[in-house]
Amino acid sequence: MKYRINLFKSAASIFISFILLYGDYSVMNSSLQAQEKPADIILYGNEKCGYCRETRDWLKSANIPYTYRDVELYGTYQEEMYRKLSGAGTARFPVLDIKGQILVRPSVDDIQKALRGEKVTKTEERKIKSPLWRPEKKKSITVKFESVKPSLNAADVFLYTDGSPENRKLIAKLKSEKIPVTLKELNLMGNAAFFDLSSRLADNGYGNTIYFPVAEVRGEFIMKASIEDIKILIIETTPE
After folding, report:
1. For 164-201, b where at least 16 C-beta lie within 10 A, e where not — what string?
2. Segment 104-124, tens digit of pLDDT
3. Which CATH number fits the domain 41-115, given the four candidates 3.30.300.20, 2.60.40.1180, 3.30.450.40, 3.40.30.10?
């Protein structure tokens, strides 16, 4: 009985010490948070985004404080960013929240205007493509694929896949026809790879939804690509 009482006292002592320690930490943490002054700028991006690095470098050189939120490192930041983007346009990095105003890949002038409290209005004339966009056949009507194939290298064609059976079939076809390609299996990569592709597709006129497989031939994108689509785009983008 004495042993049980001593054991109970020891457990109670440890529990009380934990509560006191945790309580002190919570108070200290709350105090530190209260002292922090929130920045006027929240920048959403990722480490693989060149535009993000350029914007952060400029903010640093201009001594403008900002809060950086890497959408790859913390899942809820993605949800937060897309929630703010609702009605503000297609996600293209970096996305900046400046005093509540949401800007997508803003210029330096746009950032300065927003910091002054001015409303930034952008009227971008951008091409719009449907997910079923296909290149117009011009050269490919008369030029044979085999005539341009010898000049190809893996840097000319990138294939973005999500690991589905349909994607694997296309990979197998490309291999069987010995078409050099750089494979990007996004299902095996981080969130930043998805956001980077989404941003680049937006630059090419597509929306936020990605339809795999996606082929990139010399900077031109096709969603739901077939091997025939890839061949045609290779011919159309081959220099004279």
Report:
1. eeebeebeeebeeeebebeebebeeeebbbbbbbbbbb
2. 889 999 999 999 999 998 755
3. 3.40.30.10
